Amino acid sequence: MDVTVCRFAASRLLRVEIGIRKMLLQRTFWVVIALIIGLAVAKLHIVDSRPHRILLDTDVDTDDFFALLYILKLNRSEFELEAITINANAWTDAGHAVNQIYDILYMMGRDDIPVGVGGEGGILEDGTILPDVGGYLPIIEQGNSTAGGCRYRQAIPIGRRLDIDSNYGLRKAFLPQGSRKYSPLRQPTAQQVLIDKISAGPITIFITGGHTNFAIFLLKNPHLKKNVKHIYIMGGGVRSRNPTGCCPRNASSSCEPIQCGDRGNLFTDFISNPYAEFNIFGDPFAAYQVIHSGIPVTLVPLDATNTIPINEDFFKAFEKSQHTYEAQYCFQSLKMARDTWFDDQFYTSYSMWDSFTSGVAVSIMRNSHNKNGENEFAEMEYMNITVVTSNEPYGVHDGSNPFFDGHKVPKFNLEKGGVHSGHVQTGLRDPFCTMQNGKGRCQDGYTKEVKGSQGVRVLVATRAKPNPDTSSELDRAYFKSFLDVLNHPQQTGKFNFTTQFRYYKEVLYKPDFGSKKLGKPIVFDMDMSAGDFLALYYLLKLPVEVINLKAVIVSPTGWANAATIDVVYDLLHMMGRDDIPVGLGDIFALNQTDPGDCKYIKVIPQGSGGFLDSDTLYGLARHLPRSPRRYTAENSLKFGAPRNTDHPELRQPLALEIWDSIVKKLEPGSKISILTNGPLTNLAKIIRLRKNSSSVIQDVYVVGGHINHSNLDKGNVLTVHSNEYREMNLYLDPLAAKIVFESSLDITLIPLNAQRNASSFSKILQRLGRTNKTPEALFAYRLLSRLYRLQQTHHRYHHMDTFLGEILGAVVLAGDSFLNPILQIKPIKVLADGAESKDGQIVVDEKQGKLVKMLQAVDPVAYYDNFANQLGVNKQSAVIGSFDEQRRIWSAQPNS
Ligand SMILES: *[C@@H]1O[C@H](CO)[C@@H](O)[C@H](O)[C@H]1NC(C)=O
Ligand SMILES: *[C@@H]1O[C@H](CO)[C@@H](O)[C@H](O)[C@H]1NC(C)=O
Ligand SMILES: *[C@@H]1O[C@H](CO)[C@@H](O)[C@H](O)[C@H]1NC(C)=O
Ligand SMILES: *[C@@H]1O[C@H](CO)[C@@H](O)[C@H](O)[C@H]1NC(C)=O
Ligand SMILES: *[C@@H]1O[C@H](CO)[C@@H](O)[C@H](O)[C@H]1NC(C)=O
Ligand SMILES: *[C@@H]1O[C@H](CO)[C@@H](O)[C@H](O)[C@H]1NC(C)=O
Ligand SMILES: *[C@@H]1O[C@H](CO)[C@@H](O)[C@H](O)[C@H]1NC(C)=O
Ligand SMILES: *[C@@H]1O[C@H](CO)[C@@H](O)[C@H](O)[C@H]1NC(C)=O
Ligand SMILES: *[C@@H]1O[C@H](CO)[C@@H](O)[C@H](O)[C@H]1NC(C)=O
């Protein structure tokens, strides 16, 4: 046979083979046999000479990118990573996760690898799966939008998600930034990337997060299943016994074991469900679909990963072995994980989860002629397992199971009374899941061994193999491979952020106001939605003799996730205001604690027009220059962290601390004005915890609230039908709003109707287009025109004028008399009884209401002019216009 046939695609080859066989039918038996043997040899040769194509589906936790870097470092003629899809339903938030992946790939010189994230499709009531389901929600909660609950995701502590989104602050300190980034409606979706790469030929899938993306792919594209050769999964616990919180053998009798011996590892609240592991718990129904798909599966569960915890010897060896940028990045991340670990059990409870799985997988693939998964790193055993998706008794209708409840025909035609028809865990504190004796009984997400037809035969890693070199301090074979691969010089990272530029220099810009008499002190409380950044530009442009912005406090209970605080730092850096402190507020609305049920925040879409866009400032955040100030994980003993890291001085201050420091430094007799552009969580906390705050607060401008004047006059909480007359900022933390509106503060409310009367994109853009082109005016123009274009292009962006309206508060606060504001004084109160239909509602109450100034309208033309002109003023303008400008400066020799 001609060897060039080897280059043909496998299916093509098969056709050729059949064709040849047909042609040869007339010839002698012996010739046929000879040719077939020849072909078989040729085929074997092909398998060996072409790289294994791999697609990685990841939730971008720390150990996920260890796995990613390990794979990227392998010999590309053996293993080719074809694509990455992001599971947006677990440890990270999509906008932060995707940009981190882009940065890692850029560092590694692999801008060619496609990355898929999100998508706006939904699943209809009848089970129809629309194209491009984003996988932001587990399948059981997936409706026709990307907004929804967090019954499984609440297992992931939201504070930890902040650390993972920002990689503890290391991501921005270390990773270089290339040209790829998330961009609205241009970002390839997870499903598109899966379809493209799987249609292109035989491929192996690695899953190191929740299974939502791949399960949806299988349900929607059963015809492409044949191209998936194998699935390698990190997840589950089959016969595992959790080593965390165990009492040592010599322990005194007072030692109480915590999660010791459980199958699972939901350390946040394992009482209700001692069986589940995070990745599978993220979407048990999806994991069921994947494991029962008929595609060969290899599982690397806790059984095996518990036997390869990061121990002190490995940690020390790693510390000494950082010869590449990728090794440096991994080590620094691991060190941060250790230094911020919640107790002193890091070395027994932090395992090589995903990277170990990638090692086991590639080692099995290398030995693919071995049937039983022999490999260098783990012992393997076949087991028959399933994934528990609901709890016995089956066939109940207790309101916990949206696949069945309220459906005549169950969704996806699931079997009535079958394994999916029992009680589904509704949250970590679901009372059904905890028995009277305090023991947990829910098994959702348990990879359980079963007999008979309920199970699937799966190859399971049972333990990590020891290092054959017994003289080495590394006691596991994989430890050695991990350090070798990460440190070898081939396919290595090009640079980190600081070595990318020859003349890189870290600078903080602080203004010198000399002897100027500074104006009214302001604290700006924002939730980091797009409009808030425009309002922040405006506040920074007002002459400091009139308005003196003292601090920014951010509330992550609104439109953006906490890690977006870095965008605030970058904008302040651009404007030369690294002197302005930034405080981070509570991650939960009042009356909510970890594990939160996301009762209010669930109304914000995860995808387009929601978190994905806010977290990236609609794709524009990365045009801002990069500030040396950034979020850093709490890592200093001084502030109650478990231990000091390398830089205990770099700690993210809290909103209340910033407030206290501002109050302390206030000149006698002067008072602060507060502008709130988000939920009132921070302000309510100040009122509650700082009893004398009213004596230092001059007045408060609250952007938010809505009173409907007819039933056509809806609010902007459109995803909760019983509450569609409310406004988001009050709805997102109703109790906080109630506290604020019961206080003695002097409040001016800028409600939705007033905002709507001054929110014409075309007019404000026209004005901005004519103003002086300062970098900030250009940026504002760019952001607003992007919002406007998106609004006209896609229905998920219908609410964009909400953000335009948010600028109004800052302009009203500045108090330009040309605005002709019409104010009305009304006695109001805010409802916060916990009832979804009423929470956040403003009622006029002549007897008990608090008198509040409500803005009715401003002169819109004066308002647009004022905003545009102010941004065009040359004074107090940007000191560094953009990231590009920053790169130019760092690339050229300084003049001095
Ligand atoms: C990668 O594998 C190919 C084919 O097996 C081999 O020729 C090549 O030398 C390998 N490259 C490295 C850097 O090991
Ligand atoms: C679901 O969303 C699609 C657009 O993505 C829309 O066309 C359809 O009407 C919606 N269906 C329902 C039942 O809301
Ligand atoms: C980048 O790499 C250089 C050289 O290895 C190192 O000195 C520097 O600390 C690294 N930067 C960061 C942020 O770790
Ligand atoms: C238990 O033994 C270990 C060493 O085996 C020792 O380090 C530890 O202090 C002992 N703990 C107690 C409570 O005696
Ligand atoms: C496991 O499943 C296979 C078929 O998938 C079956 O042949 C085998 O008997 C099962 N083993 C056990 C112990 O149930
Ligand atoms: C307000 O109260 C705090 C203690 O809660 C105190 O330290 C501070 O001096 C008081 N400030 C004023 C202005 O009274
Ligand atoms: C506001 O909308 C609700 C719900 O449709 C309606 O009952 C109420 O009458 C409306 N308020 C006014 C003042 O029209
Ligand atoms: C808001 O604008 C509309 C349309 O321009 C106008 O009819 C209405 O009177 C305005 N409302 C107020 C309170 O000015
Ligand atoms: C808030 O929590 C407190 C104590 O946990 C409770 O008494 C109160 O009813 C809650 N308020 C609301 C509005 O849920």
From TrEMBL:
Q: One Pfam family name from the record?
A: IU_nuc_hydro
> Which positions fall inside the Inosine/uridine-preferring nucleoside hydrolase domain?
54-392, 522-863
Keywords assigned by UniProt, alphabetized: Membrane, Transmembrane, Transmembrane helix
Q: Which domain of life is it from?
A: Eukaryota
Membrane spanning residue stretches: 28-46
Q: What is this protein called?
A: Inosine/uridine-preferring nucleoside hydrolase domain-containing protein
Question: InterPro entries, alphabetically?
Answer: Inosine/uridine_hydrolase_dom, Ribo_hydro-like
Query: Which family is it part of?
Result: Belongs to the IUNH family.
Upper taxonomic lineage: Eukaryota, Viridiplantae, Streptophyta, Embryophyta, Tracheophyta
Q: Which residues form a coiled coil?
A: none
The species this protein was found in:
Hevea brasiliensis (Para rubber tree)
